[in-house]
Design a protein that fits this description.
alpha/beta, Pyrimidine Nucleoside Phosphorylase, Chain A, domain 2, globular, Aldehyde Oxidoreductase, domain 3, three-stranded parallel sheet
């Protein structure tokens, strides 16, 4: 039986809820990666995984097949990585963590995704500052110069089947938990990462709804880490709102730059989250680097203090600028210089009160209507967040769009998708 018939029969088998062998899964990934399968069959496979799910062994086969049907990178020694499963816009910790860990002397080549269900992904944000479509050779050169990079994995055939699956998932805004795990781990393994932190938020209006679901995901990540013999730590936390204030590529990368620049108006929740993740990732790396661990204990007492030093002394900022330059961007950019959409609406408070609810789901919907992530200067700035007091005529949030049509549509949608509630 040729590969195409084997793959088609395997999809039919999965639609019936049966388990697949590695050979069957490899045939599907191979056909998808070579774009021989077509959108209809690819969608059937994506839907079968969403409805029927995969066993742990099938998850391993899927991850392995995604890696084997694409390019692979290898780096010597400890290779760090941090990844968020997403679903919480306005929480762009990755560039900050990459800058801190690279400044600490560890390699952290970061393969990031574009948005699937959110207003932007890390690759969308980094693209505001520098090209993210780097070749394999350019990635090696950038990491050699700076210890880090932030690139789009789809630019050089990294787990190519995953990017095709993302394209069929995007219109329906769905992604199964199994697919989340496989997608992330395939990119990590293909990129040569061996010390990995997974940022796993949960909450009623984000991608993962409950602690129970988060624990299920955690177990799947840990299973795959054991199979591929890499070190991993899953950071689970409940989230009710974005850590930053900006939603959309320019607005989110502005928040990131403010933290690295240590400006007075930087979003402190985003800063604290980034410090925590950086500390956890560096602790994971230091467990296998006694020399550096001894240096940290002698000079800073602990990893947390070391991270604060790298951030507050702007060593991480300088490292981030080096990465921007190495990727072909302008290292002189700062948080005050990024242009926003010219069509603006400020939502005013009609009464006094305290913000008691912020819908991440509705925030995402409105930001996408405004044009994010493709219209990079569009999005939402949260002037008020949970627990903050509101006076009559205060600005609750500001909408930015690149054209009047998107702004008008977003304002109309607010009637059905309210972002903030206060009383």
């Amino acid at each position: 039986m040729d590969e195409n018939h084997l793959a088609i029969n395997a999809v039919r088998k999965k639609l019936l809820g049966k388990k697949l062998s590695y050979k069957e899964i490899y045939s599907i990934m191979d056909e998808i990666s070579k774009k021989k399968f077509g959108d209809i069959l690819t969608t059937y496979f994506a839907a079968s995984g969403y409805s029927k799910g995969f066993s742990n062994e099938e998850l391993y086969y899927l991850t392995r097949a995604m890696v084997e049907t694409g390019e692979k990178l290898t780096f010597p020694g400890i290779v760090a990585d941090k990844h968020s499963i997403g679903g919480v816009p306005g929480t762009r910790t990755t560039p900050i963590v990459v800058a801190i860990v690279a400044a600490a002397g560890f390699k952290i080549p970061k393969s990031s995704s574009r948005a699937i269900t959110s207003p932007d992904g890390t690759a969308d944000d980094m693209e505001v500052l520098a090209p993210v479509n780097l070749t394999k050779e350019q990635i090696y050169e950038t990491v050699k110069k700076t210890n880090g990079c932030i690139v789009w994995g789809g630019s050089f055939n990294l787990a190519p089947a995953d990017d095709v699956l993302i394209q069929v998932e995007r219109p329906l805004l769905f992604e199964s938990y199994d697919k989340i795990v496989v997608s992330i781990m395939a990119k990590k393994i293909a990129f040569g990462s061996n010390h990995i932190i997974i940022d796993l938020p949960y909450g009623k209006t984000v991608k993962v709804h409950t602690l129970k679901d988060a624990e299920v995901l955690k177990n799947k990540f840990e299973f795959l880490a054991r199979k591929f013999k890499v070190k991993i730590k899953i950071i689970i936390y409940k989230t009710l709102e974005p850590a930053g204030r900006g939603i959309g590529p320019v607005l989110e990368i502005t928040d990131t730059l403010k933290v690295l620049e240590q400006t007075d108006d930087r979003p402190t929740d985003l800063e604290l989250r980034s410090i925590h993740l950086s500390t956890e990732l560096l602790d994971l790396c230091l467990a296998d680097d006694k020399k550096t661990k001894d240096y940290v204990e002698k000079n800073f007492k602990n990893t947390y203090a070391w991270v604060l030093h790298l951030l507050q002394e702007k060593i991480a900022l300088e490292k981030f600028k080096q990465i921007i330059k190495a990727q072909g961007g302008n290292p002189k950019i700062d948080s005050s210089a990024l242009p926003l959409g010219k069509f603006i609406h400020k939502e005013k408070a009609k009464k006094e009160g305290i913000v008691n609810e912020l819908s991440i789901r509705n925030l995402t919907s409105i930001a996408r209507i405004l044009g994010a992530p493709l219209a990079k200067s569009s999005g939402i700035y949260l002037d008020k967040k949970l627990g903050e007091s509101v006076k009559l005529d205060d600005t609750l949030y500001t909408l930015f769009a690149e054209n009047m049509y998107n702004l008008r549509e977003a304002k109309e949608a607010l009637h059905n998708f309210p972002i903030i509630e206060y009383e």
